[in-house]
């Protein structure tokens, strides 16, 4: 059986979407490493730390106790209670049980929220730079992504004005992501309040706020989420979070969504016909993560902060590169306009950020992802969810490769 002899025709739904560029980049890095190339990989979208011991123990205990069967579609009562307490702790909001659902990662929850709500032609406002999956998730669910291009002057954040310009009668959702992948910038309470004011006059619009990185936050105190900043909009806000990033649990596939019980009911209905429920073992592990000692989260943030500061310091010494200073998450979005038009030692010209990314891979053995994948050029995203030694070696190699340009 080969691709050439296959008579399979994918649905129009599938033909509308593409492989996530971060998945593609990770695959390319694996290939090159398999060929023996010493690639310094800054494409990773997951914590380098191991899942905390007490979380693994809880999963092992769940297996031993026979918690290995289907659970309710919306998760075990213990997990929903842990999420309820977590939301109360992080936002001061008391969500009823019916407002909470869990799924196989925040990614699945976002996808199902769109499946549950979008019809052909419905518009979803996605501020750029965006997490690569949002536009394709909208397309896969018959919606139309409306890209709102933010500017450096506005710190790559959506402004009330840009939001107003992007709204139409067909707008069903605004997607917010704070702190953002790929920029790491987070919205302040005042910025969220200003966006909420615009949305108060657009009752047809709901907000899907992806706050999966909210605990990896370098600002004072904790990050303020949209539902907390905009109580008047609360009925229309769907907050997505999960255990992947805060607790180094990407492979456990466990995320959650909190908001309007009617939307949650629709998401649950879809879950009941797709996955039935997320893994019972991962759910037990997530309970331990959310209710256990939070020292692992605090330690993670300190480590990311040190790496961020060191990476910013090294980037500042490279002519032609300019980083956006992140408030959270573990990515740096690096502007490379200063390199466009320069010539490589091989005689080529760097025309765009794809060329820059390729040049860094070929000439410095450093893997990053081009900004165009996130809807904003010319940039590249580098992750600092990797050890300081790799970050330093990579940025030194980038500096040397840039110095070889003319
Ligand atoms: N949102 C954003 C912005 C992300 O970067 C990711 C992971 N790359 C997710 C959601 C999904 O995370 P998960 O499905 O592991 O919960």
Automatic annotation (TrEMBL):
GO MF terms on file?
pyridoxal phosphate binding; transaminase activity
SUPFAM superfamilies per the UniProt record, alphabetical: PLP-dependent transferases
Q: Which GO terms describe its biological process?
A: amino acid metabolic process
Q: Which residues form the Aminotransferase class I/classII large domain?
A: 38-397
Q: Which InterPro entries match?
A: Aminotransferase_I/II_large, AspAT/PAT-like, NHTrfase_class1_PyrdxlP-BS, PyrdxlP-dep_Trfase, PyrdxlP-dep_Trfase_major, PyrdxlP-dep_Trfase_small
Asked if the Swiss-Prot or TrEMBL record annotates the protein with the keyword Transferase, the reply is: yes
EC no. given is 2.6.1.-
Q: Which UniProt keywords apply?
A: Aminotransferase, Pyridoxal phosphate, Transferase
Record keyword Transferase present:
yes
Q: Which family does it belong to?
A: Belongs to the class-I pyridoxal-phosphate-dependent aminotransferase family.
User: Which PANTHER family has this protein been placed in?
Assistant: ASPARTATE AMINOTRANSFERASE
Q: What's the name of the protein?
A: Aminotransferase
Species of the source: Rothia santali
Q: What is the lineage of its organism?
A: Bacteria, Bacillati, Actinomycetota, Actinomycetes, Micrococcales
């Amino acid at each position: 059986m080969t691709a050439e002899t296959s008579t399979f025709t994918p649905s129009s739904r599938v033909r509308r979407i593409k492989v996530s560029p971060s998945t593609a980049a990770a695959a390319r890095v694996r290939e090159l490493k398999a060929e023996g190339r010493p690639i310094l990989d800054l494409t990773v979208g997951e914590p380098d730390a191991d899942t905390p011991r007490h979380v693994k123990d809880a999963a092992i205990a769940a297996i031993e106790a026979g918690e290995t069967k289907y659970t309710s579609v919306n998760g075990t009562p213990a997990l929903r209670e842990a999420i309820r307490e977590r939301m109360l702790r992080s936002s001061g909001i008391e969500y009823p049980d019916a407002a909470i659902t869990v799924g196989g990662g925040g990614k699945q929850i976002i996808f199902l929220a769109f499946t549950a709500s979008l019809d052909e032609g419905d518009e979803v406002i996605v501020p750029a730079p965006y997490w690569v999956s949002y536009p394709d998730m909208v397309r896969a669910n018959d919606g139309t992504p409306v890209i709102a291009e933010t500017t450096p002057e506005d710190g790559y954040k959506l402004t009330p004005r840009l939001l107003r310009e992007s709204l139409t009668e067909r707008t069903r959702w605004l997607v917010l992501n704070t702190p953002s992948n790929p920029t790491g910038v987070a919205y302040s309470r005042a910025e969220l309040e200003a966006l909420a004011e615009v949305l108060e006059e657009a009752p047809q619009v709901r907000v899907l706020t992806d706050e999966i990185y909210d605990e990896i936050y370098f600002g004072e105190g904790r990050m303020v989420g949209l539902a907390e900043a905009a109580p008047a909009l609360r009925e229309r806000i769907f907050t997505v979070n999960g255990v992947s990033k805060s607790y180094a649990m990407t492979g456990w596939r466990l995320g959650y969504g909190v908001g309007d019980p009617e939307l949650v009911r629709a998401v649950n209905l879809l879950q009941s016909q797709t996955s039935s429920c997320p893994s019972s073992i991962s759910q037990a592990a997530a309970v331990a993560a959310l209710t256990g000692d939070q020292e692992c989260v605090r330690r993670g943030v300190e480590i990311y902060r040190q790496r961020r500061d060191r990476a910013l310091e090294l980037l500042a010494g490279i002519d032609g590169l300019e980083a956006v200073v992140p408030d959270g998450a573990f990515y740096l979005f690096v502007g490379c306009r200063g390199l466009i038009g320069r010539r490589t030692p091989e005689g080529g010209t760097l025309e765009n950020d794809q060329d820059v990314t390729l040049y860094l891979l070929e000439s410095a053995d450093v893997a990053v992802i081009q900004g165009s994948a996130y809807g904003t050029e010319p940039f590249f995203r580098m992750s600092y969810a990797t050890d300081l030694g790799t970050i330093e070696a990579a940025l030194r190699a980038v500096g040397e490769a840039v110095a070889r340009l003319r």
